[in-house]
Amino acid sequence: MNSPARSTETLIVASDHAGFAMKGLIAAHLKAHGFQVLDLGTHSEDSVDYPDYGYRAACAIAEGRARRGVIICGSGIGIAIAANRHPLARAALCHDVTSARLARRHNDANLLALGARLIGPELAREIVDAFLKTPFEGGRHQRRVDKLTHPVLETVPG
């Protein structure tokens, strides 16, 4: 697969202990393609709690420290749930290239969640590349993304 275009964009990486090794591989991959990497931890394989790192990444997005990032835990599920507790996070758990592309195209996902115990390093790099290269389509999808950021429950049918 082709690598993402060279960039000076800053990207966040964050993980718990289960995602620590993969985080290092992804950070190196990003740096090799010219991205600046903001590593929010963890910084060892010592056991830590994934919610701390998922929410930390979401807060960094909300603060404008980066527009996008990659978050990793054992399954990717817990860290995605944690990140999505923040109203400005749109974390998407992706296990293949197609879901990464759709997460960007249709949902304008700003955090890619990966499961280090479920996918290998090469597939992880391919998923990251697809996530970073795929633009948001806007159009009808913009209206839906706006509802994620600013939900108006009285407009929900039923």
| Radius of gyration from the alpha-carbon trace, in angstroms | 15 Å
> And the CATH topology?
Ribose 5-phosphate Isomerase B, Chain: A
User: What composes the largest sheet?
Assistant: 5 strands, parallel
The name of the CATH superfamily reads Sugar-phosphate isomerase, RpiB/LacA/LacB
Instruction: Outline the low-pLDDT stretches.
Output: none
Helix-strand makeup class = alpha/beta
Oligomeric status:
single chain
Q: Give, in order, the helices and strands.
A: EHEHEHEHEHH
CATH class: Alpha Beta
Give an account of the 3D structure.
The chain is α/β, with parallel strands linked by helices and 158 residues long. The protein has a single domain (10-155), classed as 3-Layer(aba) Sandwich (Ribose 5-phosphate Isomerase B, Chain: A), CATH 3.40.1400.10. It contains 6 helices and 5 strands, in the order βαβαβαβαβαα. α2 (50-62) packs across α3 (77-83). The longest helix has 13 residues, at 20-32. It is globular. The model has no long low-confidence stretch (mean pLDDT 93).
In short:
This protein has helices at residues 20-32, 50-62, 77-83, 97-107, 121-133, 140-149; strands at residues 10-15, 36-39, 68-73, 91-93, 111-115.
SSE diagram, text form:
Layout: E1 10-15, H1 20-32, E2 36-39, H2 50-62, E3 68-73, H3 77-83, E4 91-93, H4 97-107, E5 111-115, H5 121-133, H6 140-149
Parallel strand pairs: 1-2, 1-3, 3-5, 4-5
Quick tags:
158 residues; single chain; Ribose 5-phosphate Isomerase B, Chain: A; alpha/beta; five-stranded parallel sheet; globular
